[in-house]
């Protein structure tokens, strides 16, 4: 019989027995006989203890849901699992991802959230609750950033541990919020070892400006002067390599040459990045994303990645997705959400039919190896997010 560390304190032994029978056991008892056997061993002080360092090595490889339960078992486990160094190590080893969609309004009970295992995208048993719009700005290290753009309010939320933090509004004057066009971004600053939320905003009569909020503070700081024309406020910022990135144009309303504005979270500064110098890049259909930790640009049905961040010559065409068409409908590429180990792509598409020209969003799994695609049952705009213990409240 395999055993693991058991706290010396013998209170609530029956509760702890649910979790120590076997390393592969979910928190249910295997049988009444197993319970009696373990209780007898504990009463006889025959169950060995493990060094806390070894316990930490075991725990950092467990799923978040189980660790949340283990925190309730005793003070020493709670202290270990809540420790920042432990949560960062668990983050570095985490591989479990889920699909999330969320609608947030700044009002009581204003958060509606759906979550699904990533491997369920092709399941026929998934029943998805359709939301009228998606409020997710970005995800970083298991934390979702959501916003209510009507009121200029942003919140941070880790759905795995159900920790939620509402940020102070970037604009104190309610009337100003109603007149401002804004786009948020969220990411991790490796320099300060902290998380930041950035917002770019403008009015029809003013130039673009920026503010940044550092987690743990109670205010927003004005960032350096923005000198890069107009950002596309229809898309949130894309986080990669310690930066937040937006599509931008030299003139308002997507006019003039286009480029990428990068905000460095380490020094709160902006720089201009250029897209691939290629005739296939169309200014009318552009989306930024991240694939395999690289900045990704979707243009029409082409997917490009920047292999070395900030180096224009490192842009490489990853795939050209063929025209996805069924007998009565077609699917236009909008975004690339995730790339699986076998190179299959999870794509966000716009479904168009002969009867319904407006269409709707659909998730599609595209296999570039044989140029085939499979339409999923998901119709919401979704975000792929790691399961972690990182708290937005720390």
What would you note in describing this structure?
- Strands 11, 12, 13, 14 and 15 form a five-stranded antiparallel beta sheet that branches.
- This protein is mainly β and 394 residues long.
- Strand 13 (243-251) and strand 14 (255-264) form a beta hairpin.
- It contains seven helices and 25 strands.
- Helix 1 (13-20) packs across helix 2.
- It has helices spanning 13-20, 32-43, 52-59, 64-70, 75-82, 84-93, 174-179; strands at residues 97-104, 111-117, 136-140, 143-148, 153-158, 163-166, 181-189, 194-202, 209-214, 221-222, 230-231, 238-240, 243-251, 255-264, 269-273, 286-291, 294-299, 302-306, 315-320, 324-325, 329-339, 345-353, 360-367, 372-375, 383-386.
- Mean pLDDT is 81; it is low at 1-36.
